Amino acid sequence: MEITKLVILFNKDKILLGITVAIIGFIASVFVFPLFSFFLMTLSVLIIINILLSLFASFKLYDKSDLYQPEKLFSNFNFNKSDKAIFLHASFDPISRKLEKMFGPNNLKIYNLYGSRHEDEKSIEVSNRLFPPHPDQQNVNPTNLNDESDSIDYIFAITSAHEILSQEKRIKFFKESKRVLKENGTLILCEQMRDITNFIFFNIGAFHFVSLKNWESAITEAGMRIVKKDKLTIWGTVLHIEK
Length: 243
Hints:
The structure is a single chain. The protein has about 240 residues and is α/β, with parallel strands linked by helices. It folds into 2 domains: about 1-65; about 70-240, 3-Layer(aba) Sandwich (Rossmann fold). It has 9 helices and 7 strands. The protein has a 7-stranded mixed sheet, with helices on both faces. Strand 6 (about 225-230) and strand 7 (about 235-240) form a beta hairpin. The radius of gyration is 20 Å and the shape is elongated. The model has no long low-confidence stretch (mean pLDDT about 90).
């Protein structure tokens, strides 16, 4: 429940607003607009159901799946202690220390793509209290990485790359990934997609994510290719991307 609690804290204003609207709808359907009672009651019930569905989906994806358990999520990989890796997050870092155990502190670079753009947001402050930033993390521009060409074996972008907000910048990010990855290197992208399933459970919150079609288009235009596609619950997708 740890990460679901964080989701609730992130969205508490929206959740409280939804509950308030639902309560007003119930009251209005009985005492104010009895002629529209069915419509108002249905609307109120749908609002409550949507809140519960989004929290259920968050719990199943973030807390119950292997999304933030890299030793399980990447169990099919034969990592070597000599492999060089980048972990890219967006001011939410529940796994860098777990990855560090897999690669060693000298072979893992931890990049925060938010930089200072959202550092004053209350949600980021809450996230940093629950998951303190790694002392060695660096704020980076994902379209201009500070790494030498052909120097990295793995890039892990786990629920972070959707914060690259334009398609143009996503293409540049994948081009940079292609540049820094070794010839047999792999970029692993874990994301929720802007699709029907996420719309059903997260409603307009699904607009926060990127469609699979746009990911595929950006990857192809950058000269990379998807070699494997996995589902992580019905809400999450894992893409294995290579040069």
